[in-house]
Amino acid sequence: MPGLCAELSSLSWLSATPGGALNGIRKLVTEPLLTIWLLLAKKYRNHWQLPH
Questions:
Q1: N or C: more exposed end of the chain, with fewer CB within 10 A?
Q2: Is residue 52 part of a domain?
Q3: Total domain count for the chain?
Q4: What is the pTM of this model?
């Protein structure tokens, strides 16, 4: 991924490599979304049942 380090230089703290930085970005985005989804699933679990 040439040029990625120049474009994402402010994100260099995530990893020393561009691929590692992208994985870090994915992790930063995915974990909170998964947490929100799990909390909503727990809160509304009785409302999401399939009809019999």
A1: C
A2: no
A3: 1
A4: 0.49
